[in-house]
Design goal:
- The chain is α/β, with parallel strands linked by helices and about 475 residues long.
- It folds into 2 domains: about 210 residues, Collagenase (Catalytic Domain) (3-Layer(aba) Sandwich); about 160 residues, no CATH class.
- The chain is about 45% helix and about 10% strand.
- It has 20 helices and 11 strands.
- Strand 9 and strand 10 form a beta hairpin.
- Helix 1 packs across helix 3, helix 14 runs parallel beside helix 19 and helix 15 packs antiparallel against helix 19.
- The protein is globular and about 70 Å long.
Amino acid sequence: MQQSSFVCATGLAALIASAGMALGQAAPVVVEVSVRQHSALPARLSNAEVDHVLAEATKLLSDSDSASDTACRVILRRVGNVTTFNESDIPFSISSRQDFARVNAADTTIKVVGEINWCGQLGPSIIGCASMPGPRMAVTRFSPRSMEPILWAHEYAHTTGSPHRSAARQLMRPSIASNMREVDGAECGRLVSVFSLDPLQALVADNSGPRLDAGPPMSVNDVGGAGGTESGGADSVQAFVNQIFIEGVPFAEAAKFGEEAVPELAAMLENPAMSATWSNAAATLGAIGAPEAEAELMRFLMMDPTAELDIPQYLAKANVPINLGWLVHQGGSRTALETLIKATNADWWLNETAIDWKTPIHADREALVKQLVNKSIIGLTLTGTEEAQIRLDQLAGQLDEGAPQPILAPEEVSVLQRLGPSAESAIIAVSPDTRGAVRAIGGDEFLASQVDELRLIREQGLEDYYSR
């Protein structure tokens, strides 16, 4: 995938020592890292855990594992205690460019958030995001925990300007693998160059500051194995969904599987022992776009409505609306589109479904529904449809209590005639609970960002949207 200047990366503040010396003679470069995390995280990092991640990341950078691996003299070190922030500082869910701007405005090096739905593009299961180069960074916790040092080192290299490379065992491979430990001379040179990534200091290498162009998201699903290839490339759907995709399930590769893969994917979603594959399997169903895939996604969403879910299981289910957005874009399903429109209304979740999952991150059903409305709006945006535009306009026009219901233009009325009566009603209805949910995820600012993404998707199509 083409790498742009906005990449998925954790930003790390670099205090540069002995710059300009030959790599083999240079004193170690000390990278002092400060960490804050969202107060609602169920598994917070301790000082000791951060120290362990940084020590392991330092080891993989400084060791030479082969003739092609440069021993890079970089030391990653925590400075200060790990502290917390709350929703008023930085959102638990990063779902727009504006959310990410709030991450960048904070002066701490690494911000650990609950989930990331936007990094240059909308997408599910993103675990890290920042500009390249520059101090723009947010990360989530993910499993297996043993991979976190690799991710942090990979992302630090991004912040110094290193793009992805697909060679085996390279740290900069675009997929997580336990053997991703090698850096080349150019990457090491960037790591030890005279470049400050402290957001409170001026950028030494480029006085104009980091670039803000959008680029591809980075994500991972909690699955086993030694990692995958840059674009998937597995012959069987089983091998495909068992890969660990740094940028999430590659849409174009997943879309190549046909209807014949649906039964196997459905069987994975029915098997609790295979919950590590659920997120990848559900996304692949969405990319396939067949009617049978829609039925399995809806069954997966609605089954066990009061189940107790761990974080990966919750994300796999909560991302179904995003997967339905892919499915509508691919296959044009009117029923899936109507479901997404209804799902952008909090009342639909509260009154028409029995979903009340127990998760480590939601205090009650109201908090859960707010996140499901968020995911549904993102899924609707990914459809790239005219109906999505009308619904976003309706939401924006009615966020203020007492606002008059906007009058639909004749061309909008014509568009809505393609939907059933219940969907037509849902697309113009904005209930008090829905207002509250949308305000909680950013209000007008969030909706404006979705309109921007919708425009890009309608102009480019999803494959180009994800490859830019």
